[in-house]
Amino acid sequence: MTKLKKFTDFMNSLRFRLVLLLILIGVIPCVLLRIGMLNSYENRAVSLRTSEILSQAKILANQIVSNDYLENSGSPTINAQLEQLSTIYDGRVMIISDTFQVVKDTYKLDEKKTIISEEVIKSFYGEEITKYDSKYRYIEMTIPLVRTDQENESRQVIGVMMVSVSTDSISLNLDYLATNTRIIELICIFTVIFASVIIAGQMVRPFHKMSKSIDEIQTGYGEDALSVNDYTETKLISEKFNKMLGRMKVLDDSRQEFVSNVSHELKTPLTSMKVLADSINSMEDAPIELYKEFMGDIGNEVDRETKIINDLLSLVKMDKAAGDLNITNININELLEQILKRLRPIADKQKVELVLESFRPVSADVDEVKITLAFTNLIENAIKYNKEDGWVHVSLNADHQYFYLKVEDSGIGIPEDSLGHIYERFYRVDKSHSREIGGTGLGLAITRNAVLMHRGAIKVFSTEGEGTIFNVRIPLNYIS
Questions:
Q1: Where are the transmembrane segments (predicted)?
Q2: Which of 336, 322, 327 is nearest to 477 (CA)?
Q3: d(CA 458, CA 133)
Q4: Distance, C-alpha 449 to centroid of its chain
Q5: Fewest Cβ atoms nearer than 10 Å: which of 75, 92, 106, 155?
Q6: Distance of alpha carbon 345 from alpha carbon 327, whole angstroms
């Protein structure tokens, strides 16, 4: 099974396909060249042989007519020339009269016999017929014997000369040439195969280098970046891989930091509860007021632990695919009014003025639960991190494509060096103040994830000691 897999992998490899392609590119022209050379030689040799014999036959035909050979076939001169033509070209010559009777046959087989064929009949009409039979390897031609009357300017076909010539000599030369060209072809094929293997190996070497570098990076023994610049393609792949690797490192660092922060945040309330419980257990006959105080503190820590866990669960849900969104068309004006109604008691307690300003009616395709959580976190943070007798101004506007939420406060503001970190999980600008008001450091991370899931954007502008502005933009129509 392993051998079969290796063979299948090799067949599917780029190297094998390159070798195959280079072999085809090199071998096919060799084969076509050999076939073309052989066909060209055969056609050329037959053409020359035909032209040569036809020239000799025409000269002899004129002599046959001028010597009235058809009337007196005993002419030793003509007979000698016919025999010579037959011997030189290893062929057969027949002289046929106008009655289709064979007057002379150099093979002495068909003399005084009648011969009727398509070629002979055409020649009696004045045509010269030449054909080559490649199967049986012979050239056949029929030449009309024409008597010309110069006084009357007339031409009369009085007979036909039929010549059949063997092309065995051409076939022998063709076989010899075929043998030599096949040897050359085989040498070329082996050379092409060898060169293809070498060239394909060189061409895929950068990819093997990339694979080795990636393995070394995975095991921690290689460089921190992939750099294979042999081809434009490998250079682009290296750049993309390095970007992906950088992103993975960031994600891994973020994951480790997240796990560390979660452990710390969950451990802190447990440690407090442990200390309170041990303190109570170590006291004998402690007053009931102290018991109540300690149990109240333990209850507060439990509430804090519960809030952290709930926020973590909300964040996990936000990390799921956008396909988990339950999109419905919601009246955003009414949604904000409901949120402010729930938060107004907190604002009153903080002595913070809470104002909602809607510029126009807005309806949008959103997940009501997630977008409510996002907007609540923004407005609640603006209230909690505010000054006494401060204000929070929430405004809603829209155009033909987006709706815009602006949450502006007169609070403590965010230091400039912290603006790039506020969406990180468990990040707190002022840790002591955050713990006093019960913050978990997850609110803005949840808000940002919810906005991004809706294909939206969120921006922050803040001046420390003066206040903060959050601008949120979300499409009116959700497109999955």
A1: 183-204
A2: 327
A3: 89
A4: 33
A5: 155
A6: 30
Render the burial of 388-424: b for 16+ CB within 10 Å, e for the rest: eebbbbbbbebeeebbbbbbbbbbbbbeeeeeeebbb
Of 446 and 394, the one with more pLDDT: 394
The Cβ of residue 367 has, within 10 Å, a number of other Cβ atoms equal to 20
Rounded-to-integer distance, Cα 75 and Cα 67, Å: 8
C-alpha 261/C-alpha 426 separation (Å) is 6
For 317-352, what is each residue's pLDDT tens digit? Answer: 655 544 467 889 999 999 999 999 988 888 888 889
Say yes or no to pLDDT of 111 above 80.
Answer: yes
Position 304: which residue type?
A: R
Work out the number of other CB atoms within 10 angstroms of the CB of residue 218: 9
Beta bridge partners of 95: 104, 161
- In order of start, what are the domains of the chain with their CATH numbers? 16-173 (3.30.450.20), 224-319 (1.10.287.130), 321-475 (3.30.565.10)
Kindly report the number of other CB atoms within 10 A of residue 147's CB atom.
Answer: 14
Over residues 4-35, the pLDDT tens digits come to 777 776 677 777 788 888 888 888 888 888 88
Question: Is 317 exposed, middle or buried, given 0-12, 13-18 or 19+ CB atoms closer than 10 A?
Answer: middle
C-alpha angle 427-301-423 in degrees, rounded to nearest 5: 15
Helix (H, G, I), strand (E, B) or coil at 83: helix
Residue 467 backbone class (left: φ over 0; alpha: ψ -120 to 50; beta: rest): left
Instruction: Find out whether 147 and 156 touch, Cβ atoms under 8 Å.
Output: yes
